[in-house]
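quick one, two chains, predict together pls
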Amino acid sequence: MTARTSGGVRFGIVVFPGSNCEYDTMHALGTFPEAEPYYLWHKDHDLRAPDVVILPGGFSYGDYLRTGAIARFSPLMREVAAFSDAGGLVMGICNGFQILTEAHMLHGAMLRNRGLKFVCRAQHLRVERTDTPFTRSLRVGDVVQIPVNHNEGAWTAGAESLQEIEDRRLVVFRYCDAQGNVTDDANPNGAVDNVAGLVNEGGNVLGLMPHPERVCESVVGGAGGRGLFDSLLEHVLEVR
Amino acid sequence: MFKVSVYVTPKAGILDPQGATVERALPALGFSGAIDIRVGRFITLLVEGDDESAVRADVDAMCRRLLANPIIEDYSFDLASVDGIGDDGNGIGGEAEAGE
């Protein structure tokens, strides 16, 4: 892995068979002048010196067996794991989040939505942590509106200890109402503790079910997702 | 060669909305008294080899690494010898083995 010291901030967008949000991610990143996004194919063996790796949304491998279960064994995922072990920034959006839990790069697992319905709607999220590279331009308690679009998004700690996950402050976003109240009514899928997104212990891997790349321009109905990409750009440019 | 049947079910305590929905549907059809319904997955496979304990160890590893997600699912499996080699003669195969 070669650290870059100048030029644009490189975002490697990993494409799996069945991914379908890679174009949205590419387009959204195109609205940030400092970003230099490029695609990676899941069979590649080289991440090509990214600053950030993004696992986009979609239905990798048709969601066969379990969401993300097959994609996690793609050749490139070995490189993604090595990159994150070395402190590299990885963000998994929706199916990307599912892949990261299956790969044990994030705690817990995904269950089918409570109510057995595919949910596709605008969603409010409360920001729980801003001491991460993904949320540093936001404020704790901020309410951002970012849409969800998934069938298996009920995050659960499962056999792992929820208390430990909460004690280590790994939860970064929770589903909430427009006022920021974390209620069961505001929970679109039955995720435990309204968890919408969480990081690993190192704080360099984030998974979230909502799609920030879909709300980066007011012309598409909102710009609530920009804060995450602003944060990443700020962070990468600062640590260089 | 062994024919292997793998059963994957949601762990106790894990939300199973499919099971809950089926449980609510049965009384509507006049079936009463069916409770604790869990919906899982049934996987069959043929595994080459004549050493049953080695095949068991392999299948257990397959379950842990791919076929089930041990964070949310339990698994068990049965083995049945299918070609005479290593056949134990009873034609039914081994007993179920509890997953982790």
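Chain B touches chain A at residues 10-11, 14-15, 17-18, 21, 66-67, 69-72 (CB under 8 Å).
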